[in-house]
Amino acid sequence: MLRNGKYFLSNISAIFPEIPITQIVPNIVERAWLVGSFQALEELENMMITDDF
Questions:
Q1: C-beta of residue 28 within 8 angstroms of C-beta of residue 40
Q2: Measured between alpha carbons, how far is 49 from 7 in angstroms, rounded to an integer?
Q3: Greatest alpha-carbon span in the chain
Q4: Whole-Å CA distances, 46 to 6, 10, 27
Q5: Distance of CA 15 to the CA centre of its chain
Q6: d(Cα 10, Cα 40) in Å, to the nearest integer?
Q7: What are the per-10-residue average pLDDT scores of the chain (53 residues)?
Q8: Residue 24: per-residue pLDDT
Q9: How far apart are CA 17 and CA 11, in angstroms?
Q10: Exposure of 47 by Cβ count < 10 A (0-12 exposed, 13-18 middle, 19+ buried)?
């Protein structure tokens, strides 16, 4: 997260605080290795649409 011109670690997104980005991104990357990028991104899209995270 960028605050006052400096970056720092954060578990919460300033833009999407209700979405657990630090948990979702590693899972989606792992999923992409298993099923391919297209399928993993479709699954991510469905997750976002249904709030299933």
A1: yes
A2: 30
A3: 40
A4: 34, 25, 14
A5: 12
A6: 24
A7: 89 87 93 98 94 82
A8: 92
A9: 9
A10: middle
